[in-house]
Amino acid sequence: MNRYLKSAALLAVASFAAFSTPAASAAYPDKPIRLIVPFPPGGTTDTVARFVAQALSEKLSQQVVVDYKAGAATIIGADFTAKSAPDGYTLMLATATTFTVNPILYPELSYDPIKSFTPIGLVGTTSLVLLANKKLEPANDLQTLLAEIRKDPSKYSYGSHGNGTTVHFAAEMLWSAAKVRITHIPYKGAAPALTDLMGGQIPISFDAVPAAASAIKTGLIKPIAVTGPTRAAAMPDVPTIAESGFPGFSMQTWFAVVGPAHLPGNVQKTLEKALRAAVDDKTVQAKLVEAGLEPKFEDPTSYTERVHKEIAALRPIAEANHIIHN
């Protein structure tokens, strides 16, 4: 073969390889994307995940499918996501529990909240609300409730969704700020705690605003104050704890989308742009508000700063109150 024919043959082979390599030819995304939810179906996270998946499907012109991998306080789903191929086809929607609470409670956690993931962005936040049984009188506001507790703390207890949950942290933050101490009764989840609060087995508890809003309508429980920095849209008449005598108090849970560590830069940017557009969409915002969220997009840098800041704030609370996982 003369050198001209040889050069032509090599060029043909190179051209075929370039056009036949999927990574080189395919534009992201070119197949369905999985959105891992580290919680069981049902509840606020599931609702948010479905809204986000539908919105991303429209923005990316590719199907985004919700995939549940629940268990072990979200660790199973987070570990699966962290170990998935960093190609943009496995993402996760998770809450503050995954990224700021678990790293404090589990010293040998199988994932790192920062190093194991590529952040795409924050979707929204939701506050917790301090609740009391309707028959607990005259405690209709926070200062009156605290005054009653101080008379005889041994008469009072509060329920949480379990040791080390955001509800547990929020309560201990408040009792520490108010310099009161009451008995903690950890439940195995939100539903049994709310059921006992409504039934009067416990006088006080906290819950996420979306779940509490519907329970309050029964007339069996009453809202005292919300934990966020501003009043909740679903409960505009309920003051914040900060307004009720504890300036600066703030405790929220939030929802963020992440992928495995080392996502290619172009993939991260594509996903970030789509997620921002989804959260900014008025229709999506309305759905998120209906689910009890305050829609709020935060870019990867802001998200990372939030994680660092919250871990630093929560760790002393855990140490001072001996908060451990179940």
Automatic annotation (TrEMBL):
Keywords: Signal
Pfam families the UniProt entry points to: TctC
Signal peptide annotation: 1-26
Cross-referenced InterPro entries: BUG, Bug_dom1
PANTHER family: BLR1237 PROTEIN, TRICARBOXYLATE-BINDING PROTEIN
UniProt similarity note: Belongs to the UPF0065 (bug) family.
Protein name: ABC transporter substrate-binding protein
